[in-house]
Write a structure and sequence with these properties.
Layout: H1 2-23, H2 26-34, E1 51-65, E2 70-82, E3 98-101, E4 111-113, E5 130-133, E6 137-140, E7 143-149, E8 161-170, E9 178-188, E10 198-211, E11 218-230, H3 233-253, H4 262-284, H5 294-321, H6 330-336, H7 340-345, H8 353-360, H9 364-399
Parallel strand pairs: 1-9
Antiparallel strand pairs: 1-2, 2-6, 2-7, 3-5, 4-8, 5-6, 8-11, 10-11
């Protein structure tokens, strides 16, 4: 029995010696010493002493998603605080002044994105290592991905600018326990990867303190604000340039001969083009936007004008093609024909050889009535052209300028 006990003791001593030799490094000794009886769930300060937390952000990439009215941000969040439990004397540990620790080894602030649009509102940060210094200072720079709500104003789309915020604050610690402080450079864009659609034109950070209905203590937060401007070359080619073609198609239809059926074809094709663009906008832009983009309103109103243009064209074609014995009403002839209106629009219709032959056959009255109706149709086209030009200029001024 004594022999067995001696063998067990010898094995334990040998195992302990080998284990000590395997892990006996200055870093292991330091880590074991500073983390002995360390509780990661307890704030590393006395209850009545607030922990100062310096916060900064290095932005890597930003993108606005119109369909969900959110801002997606990739960034490095810089957090620095003092942990009095992590202090040590470098002279006792072979001059080691800093130590790399895993994310779960020491206490970390519960800094949360208040306006998060994700289901998980706590796990914003990657489990990267922390750097602890002998002075008690702890530095943590985790990679982060934020998806935050952003109230979009698409009125000037596609030449719009959007202002979005990222609001960071403690979820459970009030201002008396965790005090937020802006870093010397709260926002850095040095490592920013340029977005092909959005450009950051302005950024700022602001420290806020407020009281909520739930609690009498104040809670602090840091709000990072970004103004992003949209790059519009592609959208200009897709959405803006076709407006010029559609406007010219509508106006040209009024200059075609009054009996030309191409009027209806031209206006009908313009209607189809406008409908296709409106469907495209529906797929591209959020339907529940606070303000409808001006260019969408422009196309919608243009569709109404095209419908009116189709009615005018059908009426003009009908009266110019109809061979009638009925003379043009005298009041219409007085108002529109044989006066300055016809002179301004140069709507004199020359008699054709066919008309001359009909005169010789004694049908001059019928031919004159037909010519009057054609002159009246031309005047309607010209007046509609002027009215539409004025309307399009006003629409362009209010919607596109």
């Amino acid at each position: 029995m004594k022999v067995i006990v001696l063998l067990c003791c010898a094995f334990a001593v040998a195992f302990g010696a080998s284990n000590s030799l395997w892990n006996d490094t200055d870093l292991d000794t330091l880590k074991t010493t500073v983390l002995k009886d360390y509780d990661v769930h307890v704030r590393p300060n006395n209850y009545k002493t607030a922990t100062d937390l310096w916060v900064g952000m290095s932005v890597l990439h930003m993108e606005i998603i119109e369909a969900t009215s959110t801002l997606e941000t990739h960034a490095w969040i810089r957090m620095n605080w003092t942990d009095i439990k992590m202090k040590w004397d470098p002279a006792k540990f072979n001059g080691i002044s800093n130590l790399r620790l895993s994310a779960d080894d020491v206490w970390q602030p519960d800094l949360t994105v208040y306006n998060s649009a994700e289901d998980k509102i706590v796990d914003h940060y990657a489990k990267t290592n922390k750097i602890a210094y002998n002075t008690g200072s702890v530095l943590w720079v985790p990679t982060s991905k934020f998806k935050t709500y952003c109230s979009l104003d698409l009125k000037m789309w596609p030449f719009d600018q959007q202002k979005c915020d990222i609001k960071l604050g403690s979820w459970t610690y009030d201002a008396y326990q965790l005090k937020l402080v802006l870093a010397d450079s709260p926002i850095e864009l040095e490592h920013y990867y340029k977005n092909l659609e959005w450009v950051v034109v302005e950024s700022s950070a602001k420290h806020n303190s407020r009281k909520y209905d739930c609690c009498p203590e104040p809670y602090e937060d840091i709000t990072f604000s970004f103004t992003l401007k949209r790059r519009a070359p592609m959208y200009k080619a897709i959405a803006v340039i076709p407006t010029v073609a559609i406007v010219f198609m509508v106006l040209i239809a009024f200059w075609l001969p009054p009996d030309a059926g191409e009027k209806l074809i031209l206006n009908g094709f313009a209607c189809v083009l406008v409908c296709i663009l409106l469907i495209y906008f529906t797929q591209l832009l959020p339907v529940m936007s606070a303000a409808s983009p001006l260019i969408v309103s422009f196309y919608s109103q243009t569709l109404y004008l095209l419908a009116a243009s189709l009615i005018i064209s059908a009426f003009v074609i009908n009266i110019s093609r109809k061979k009638t014995q009925t003379a043009l009403p005298s009041f219409i002839k007085t108002v529109f024909l044989d006066n300055f209106i016809e002179t301004i629009f140069s709507c004199k219709v020359k008699s054709t050889g066919k008309a001359e032959s009909t005169v010789e056959d004694g049908n001059a009255g019928s031919d004159n009535a037909t010519q009057d109706w054609i002159r009246f149709a031309v005047i309607i086209d010209r007046i509609a052209f002027v009215v539409y030009v004025i309307i399009f200029i006003c629409m362009g001024f209010f919607h596109l300028v």
